[in-house]
Structure prediction request, 213 residues.
Amino acid sequence: MTPDVSRPAGPFCSTAPLILASGSPRRQEFLKNLGLDFQVLPAVIDETPEPGENSVHFARRMALEKACQVAGIHPDSYIISADTVVTVRDRILGKPADGEEALAMLTALQDTTHTVITGLCLHHREKKITELQTCSTEVTFARFPETALRAYVATGEPLDKAGGYGIQGIGGFLVRHIRGSCSNVIGLPVSQLVTLLLHHQIVAPCPSREDSL
Prediction:
């Protein structure tokens, strides 16, 4: 497990042990920006969809399995896990295996609207707490020539991202319109997460931030 990677400048303070079951730098950055104290322990599970499994069920199942695996090691901690998938025409797009697959994904998304779905799980084994939610965002791509898509793939950015693009990075140029949570497209529906954490009193507004107003 990595050491504490918190950033105390955020608006919230952690009140309980918290583990992020993800190696995603983007998810870690969201938690850092909130000011949370947390540790990182990426879950390692089989991320293959079951035959006929729809995207919502798949994202929720992945998030739950990740949380449960890490909770087996740390049953006394709150576990945050998430799984983000891109779906178009009932087809789930995961992370491309190589540049050609990334190009094929981007080509399929051209000039159309796809849905980004994140399964979000908050789990504490000893306290028997399991919160499992879903967030969906509609993203519409513009159309670009294949040369532009190949140039983007050549940057390497698409290779570790569901759907083959990063809206928060270079891939932002591909997006014509977004409807819903932008942070969800990046990999974590932050508003839903903070609502959950506050509800379970896992975080609280930082007194030092309140006193400075």
User: Anything to note?
Assistant: Helices lie at 25-34, 55-73, 99-109, 146-154, 182-186, 190-199, 207-211. The CA atoms of residues 108 and 121 lie 30 Å apart. The chain has seven helices and nine strands.
